[in-house]
Fold these 2 entries.
Entry 1:
Amino acid sequence: MPAKPKVYLESSCFIEIAKHTVGTDDQSREQDVWILKRLLMACKNQHIEIYTSMLSVAECQSAKPILDDRVKGIFKALLTSGQYVMLVQDTILIAERARNLRWVHDINCAGPDALHIGSAMEMECEELLSFDRGILKIAPELEKLGLNVRIPRDTLVLPARYRQEKLDLGVTEEI
């Protein structure tokens, strides 16, 4: 049985899903949110694996001004229910990968971004999906290290059956 594709969602992806759900999103990201929801469905159906750092749980608390009880419920369902993503616990190996982006590879990025990147690399994800400008800016350097960084609409790991407009998978599309 072939290995399931692995994708890493940086915290900005979860924030965009929440914004879309409550109607405060950037309309130009509608296609990205659609893809993110399909990725989550594919993970729930065990066709792919989705990872994010424990850091995402903390970073989503800054989703102002939309942080109401409904949004908190979305974050809890997505990040801590165990249905959609696997949380990556920071370890010394991940911290060293994050540090070595600068020390070894001369890739400069913010500490939280480096931890996301280190987590994705440690979990051997094919892609890291993000809207974060700092991460997207260093995408070419990260690709040289074997990590493809993309905005969600450009993902290559979403199985073809999930790219269809209407899905008949016996599960609800609402997340």
Entry 2:
Amino acid sequence: MDTRLQKKFNILLVGDSCIDQYQYGSIDRISPEAPVPVFKFSHAETRPGMAGNVNANLQALECNITFITDGEPSTKTRLIDARSKQHIVRIDNDIQAIGLQPGFVNNINDYDAVLVSDYNKGVVSYELIAWIVKEFNGPIFVDTKKTELARLEGCTVKINALEYSLLKSQCSELIVTNGKDGAMYKGQSWKAPQVEVTDVCGAGDTFLAALAVEFLNTNNIVDSIVFANRAAAITVQHTGVYAPTLKEIECQD
């Protein structure tokens, strides 16, 4: 039996919170008022997004999580065609948080790892990450939209290909994800499993959570990237954010 099923890691998760709303409906006519489709609403679902989705993924991976955020969550509302499961439009209501301050937690070294899910909505600052690096003795994993990654030395940083193109500086431990092409680390690439993609929403959150958990299991970053690729490949086969279980990931070819 895989030892991953036997151990629960204690993880401190910090980041921006969001509510993901999914409004399903159908389109069968054009509006008489303007050349736009008429969306006929049928039903809605609500799920946690941003760091809240990382939290859900960590829970699915059987971790104990302390999740710290700040302020009122942003909201992302997606209109989705119920038949095709395709997004029609996304409506963002972004709320800028005041931000957490260094010293926000007293017992930081009680955790096995610290994860930072930074969507640049104000919860996480460069100074906050610097404080975590200074105070915490274990692995730190950061998913960020910040561009000065040289200021995040001491962390394993995960970003996507678009974010990589916007960087002003890099850090030494940098992982760049690129959809179906998998992930790049130190000049090498690891392909993702080839699957039919339904929705890429939340795949980066899944990758971050799986990367951290597998690293705690193996202390091997390459094995962790491969594991995270497999986890994200499961998420993209679902509509909206999704949190695969350990059993699902282990069964992924």
